[in-house]
Every structure is written in C-alpha cells, then in structure tokens.
Amino acid sequence: MSIEWLQPAWPLVPGAAGLPSRVHAAFTWRAGGQSAAPCASLNLAGHVGDDPVAVRANRAAVCAALALPGEPVWLQQVHGAAVARLADATPPAAPPVADAAVTGRDRVPLAILVADCLPVLLASEDGAVIGAAHAGWRGLAAGVIEATAAAMGRSGDALRAWLGPCIRQPHFEVGAEVRAAFLAGAPGWERAATVAAFRANERGRWQCDLAALARVRLHRAGITAIADCGVCTFDDQARCFSHRRDGRTGRMAALLWLAP
C-alpha cells in the first residue's frame, strides 16, 4: 500500500492571495508503512515501542514520497510550551526537547507527532517564517500556541493557521481540572468561548473541544485566519492512529517546510 497524506488547505484572507508556493505542508495517514501491530503501519515515532528499523524505514519512505528537502527535525515532545528555534540549516544532533518549532530557513522540515493531540501549523503570509506546535490540552493550557506565534516574530494578522486531525469533542472526555485550567484567568470573550468548549456529560465529567480551545488561543495571539480540517482521529480508524481509542499505537506527523 502506498503512502497517502492530507494536504493542508490554508485559510484564504479576503483581498489577499494564497500563501507563497515556497510553503509546503502535509499530514501523514497511518497506512503504507512497515510497522507491525499495534503500530501498523506508518508509525513515525521512536518512543512507542515500535521496531526502530521499521521506524527508520517509515521515515525514509515519507521523506521520499513527499520529496522533502531534508530530514525532518523530530522533537522530543513533553506536552509543554517550549519552542525550538531552528536558525541553522544543519539538523540538531539530538531531538530538541520542545513541543513546537519555528524556522525561516529553507530545507528545514518541521515535524509534529500526534495520535489524538492537535497539530497546529502556522505560516506568515509572506512565506518568510513557519511554525508548528503540538497542542494537547496541557500544551494549550501552558501557552504553546502563543509561544510559537511569538517566536515567529510576526504580528498575528500576518499569520495563518491550520488545525489538523485530532480527537474531537464527542470522544474527548476530561475531568473538571482540565476545564478549570482553561477557565483560570480567561477574560471576557475568552471565558465565554472557553465555557462553550466544554459540554457536561452524564458521568459528571466534560467533553472537551480541543480545536475550539486552540481557536481561543490563536485569537489571543491575534491570529484570526484559521482553517480546521475537521478530522477526528478517534472516529477515523482506517486513516488515523488514536491513543485514546487504542492505547499503545503509532504516531502520525504534521510536516511543514520551506523550499525555494
């Protein structure tokens, strides 16, 4: 089976053209790789107990299929808000411990691994700088989106955002502490939008709309040009890994890069 991917559709800004052709992005689906169950088959993560030989082969296959200009910068994601600033064309010797990365360099692909968390891709409208963030609820609450936007050095109205596949509200049950973490200090309109992102269920817990919370944080950073692919990783078993659905499983990648 060949490798397939989702082509992100960036939001169009009224009166403006699309992003420059040097901005490239892709989101990998789970099929077409060499990993065995439970990571079958295009697992791109090295931390989930998969055969390292299969992971390396899967990563090489993705690089070839997408004609990437270099090896992606794989992060050691820890559900925080640290941002790796990649100003050097030479890949780092070890994966940066961060949940986001930004660069203005050509041929430095950014990579975010997910299996329910939300990948957020950002690009400046002039194509000069890009950023990618791993936005699970902990990272969102810690400010990973705001930190990524700040590291890009552009005003929010000069940035565009794409929200990738993630677990959606009907399947994402959380406790009251998660809701409280987002409501703490949320002013005015943010509070109303945050309240709307949580729906009480019959078990006394909450169904959480991760993408809605991301939109709140993007607006906080001044970013209003936002596109959401709408895909639910839990629902789409054929194409998506889902940790909440399957437990031990593989990881997909949101990839973003600049090329001349």
Can you tell me about this structure?
The protein contains seven helices and 13 strands. 23% of the residues lie in helices and 22% in strands. With 260 residues, the protein is an alpha+beta fold. The chain has one domain: CNF1/YfiH-like putative cysteine hydrolases, CATH 3.60.140.10.
User: What structural class should be given to the helix and strand makeup?
Assistant: alpha+beta
Helix percentage range: 10-25%
> What is the averaged pLDDT score?
95
User: Main β-sheet, in a few words?
Assistant: 6 strands, mixed
| The first-level CATH class name | Alpha Beta
Total domain units: 1
- In the CATH hierarchy, the architecture is 4-Layer Sandwich
Number of strands: 13
- Rg, rounded, reads 18 Å
Q: Which H/E pattern describes the elements? A: EEHEEEEEHHEEHHEEHEHE
Q: Low-confidence parts, pLDDT < 50 over ≥5 residues?
A: none
Strand order of the largest sheet: 3-4-7-6-8-12
Total helix count? 7
Shape: globular
Q: Name the CATH superfamily classification.
A: CNF1/YfiH-like putative cysteine hydrolases
- Percentage of residues in strands: 15-25%
CATH fold description: CNF1/YfiH-like putative cysteine hydrolases
* First-last Cα distance: 31 Å
